[in-house]
């Protein structure tokens, strides 16, 4: 999930170092993100798969 107050950064560009604090902040943000249970993930995947077949 992206917030409006942050600038979009392309982290895939090589040669642009990231500070240790920025890296730790990204990890913490990902750890607090929304998570699905295994069952919810399977249901969502099956729904996506059935929509793709049509």
Tell me what you see in this structure.
This protein is elongated. It has 2 helices and no strands. It has helices at residues 20-31, 38-53. The chain is mainly alpha-helical and 54 residues long.
Describe the protein's topology:
Elements: H1 20-31, H2 38-53
Q: Can you count the helices?
A: 2
The number of strands is 0
- Percent range of helical residues: 40-55%
Could you tell me how far the N terminus lies from the C terminus, measured between alpha carbons in angstroms?
Answer: 29 Å
- Ranges with pLDDT <50 over ≥5 residues? none
Mean pLDDT rating = 84
Percent of residues in beta strands: under 5%
Radius of gyration: 17 Å
List the helices and strands in order.
Answer: HH
Shape: elongated
Return the structural class: mainly alpha
Distinctive features:
54 residues; mainly alpha; 52% helix; 0% strand; elongated
